[in-house]
Write a structure and sequence with these properties.
Strand content: 5-15%
Largest sheet: 9 strands, mixed
Distance between the termini: 41 Å
Number of helices: 16
Radius of gyration: 32 Å
Structural class: alpha+beta
Strand order of the largest sheet: 4-6-5-7-3-2-8-1-9
Length: 462
Amino acid sequence: LWPAVALLGASLVLAFMPPVAGVPLAAYMAVGLLLLGGMAALPWLLGSVLAMVPKAFSRQPLAMLALERARRMRHATTVAVGGVVASLSLAVALTVMVTSFRGSMMEWLDAVLPAPMYVRAAGGSSRVDAALLPADAAQRLEQLPGIERAQAMRSSQLVLSPERPAISLLIRPLQGEQAMQLPWVEGPIHETRPGIAVHISEAVAQLYGLKPGDAWPLLSKAFSLQNQDHQSPNASFYIASVWRDYVRQFGAVALDWKDYLALVGHAGNAAQISEIAVWPESQSQLSGTDLQAAIEQALGTPGQSPPALEFVSSQALRERSLRIFDRSFAVTYWLQAVAIGIGLFGIAASFSAQVLARRKEFGLLAHLGLTRRNVLSVVAAEGLAWTMLGTIAGTLLGLGVAVILVHVVNPQSFHWTMELRLPLLRLLALGAAVVLAGVVTAWLAGRRAASADAVLAVKEDW
């Protein structure tokens, strides 16, 4: 047991190590040592679990034969179920990781898409500040019948350091009764502090080593350089919160509209907006087409044709995002099937080799009065016991690997976090399928060894 404990301890230590050049090498090594330690602990685990089997099972001859062989030949059992343990652990880890990511992304979409409809100038999504709307566009829309509320938003980029990629600057209403909520991870802090509050994504917090309450002189310098044409005063910023962002890997900073206007003023295009969140009235009689036509008319200039606008609903954005997500991770389900197939192939080969080597044993059992059906029942019971123990061990190892993937590898690789979610029904179905396949595999492997030729094999000992 001590080698297994040493491997598992080393895996735990490596899981807390920082990345190397932005790559979670220590975390990958932790996953490998965890699997090796789990495999090394299999004989001890099998013995511990089999020791808890009620003695009543030993009173039944067939059950006694299957259990005693599994209990007394644990190393052979380990060889038989090792492939299933390794493949099932990886399948469980992938299942938990994908489920956790998908669930966290759905919650994130609900937080960042609060409005039913979004309006932006055509082409504004592909080029930063390429297409902007008038500064009073949100106020114009709020005056339209059928619209309950409209909020202005703006997106741009800000270079903090020449050595790093630019971060996104998101201007939102983040204060007051109609403040937009962010998917906060830490904060926000509410006590009054000197300076302007900004809300940073997890990527910014990790890349620049920031936390709520810290001052951020680098942002002050970058902001003053970018807006020097507007003669904006030098301002100090502090971190009010850290929020989760699954889109901008290099980071984003959210700033309140009022604070932004106080810094840059209303000159030029500084106050123009790039997107409007729209809440239509629930009792509105206007159809979607009529509402869009009214918005185009309200945002147009008298005497000119209406501007080219893009309309998108939050529901469509959610469906599109989830569709892209499912398409991106579809390969993981095939990888799980391949892993389980390889594990079952390994257990089939191991069972076949073992039952062929046990032809004399089966022949002796036949001389003692056991029928071919009895012998096959013993082999199937052994397969049931072994694959059940392998399923338990593989599931536990898979959960351990999933914890490392979710809480260590993912933040170190992509600079964002997610909540660990366990799809219990899917894991139970996966384990049941492995157990059923293992029993069927053992039964098929034992058919030939339990044939009539097995009785003649006893003559080799005479």
